[in-house]
Amino acid sequence: MNRKQRNTGTVPCEIIKDAWDHKKSTYKNLTDMGLANDPNKIIKIPNFKQEKIKQAKVIVNKGELENTDEEETITAVPIKKEVAEKLEKEAKAPRERRFMLPKGQVEFIAYLLDKYGHDYKAMEKDRKNYYQETWKQLRAKIKTFMGIPKQYGEYLQARGLLDKEPDEEELKKQAKALVED
């Protein structure tokens, strides 16, 4: 029972897990790493009423500000500041795009591209345009489709427009060129 009560759960982040000291409290661990335990205490939302009260006190005291009401924040330098830096670096790192269009939508876009090429006004009037999408909406969907190298590469390969195995960098260049047209 003691183990269950002391267990705070598992931390999925490896960076925090490596720097965690089980002898310290959660608050102390996060403070040592330079992280916030409660973001509401770190980034305070301005309180309109409190600001007006302070202004009124200044006026009543004729410009003399009381030092007892002001909060002096002392920022301690975190012991394990490299943890926050690693987390920041990881957050800024580029992510692999996993977005894919649904199969039905890909088939519809492929049908339109096969039949009309890049004539979006004609696509708008097609009988299979059940949702009555405008030419701008169709153009945006096609641009999105061309921005997904895997699906667009399969489309090009099926149509015989690619001579060799699809290279992701090459597909991205082709997609950008077609999107810019």
Automatic annotation (TrEMBL):
InterPro entries xref list = Ribosome_biogenesis_Nop16 (IPR019002)
One GO cellular-component annotation of the UniProt record comes to: nucleolus
Q: Write out the entry's keywords from A to Z.
A: Nucleus
One record GO biological process:
ribosomal large subunit biogenesis
A Pfam family recorded for this sequence: Nop16
Nucleus among the record's keywords?
yes
- Would I find Nucleus among this entry's keywords? yes
Q: Where in the cell is it found?
A: Nucleus, Nucleolus
Return the similarity comment.
Answer: Belongs to the NOP16 family.
Return the protein name.
Answer: Nucleolar protein 16
Species assigned in the record: Papilio xuthus
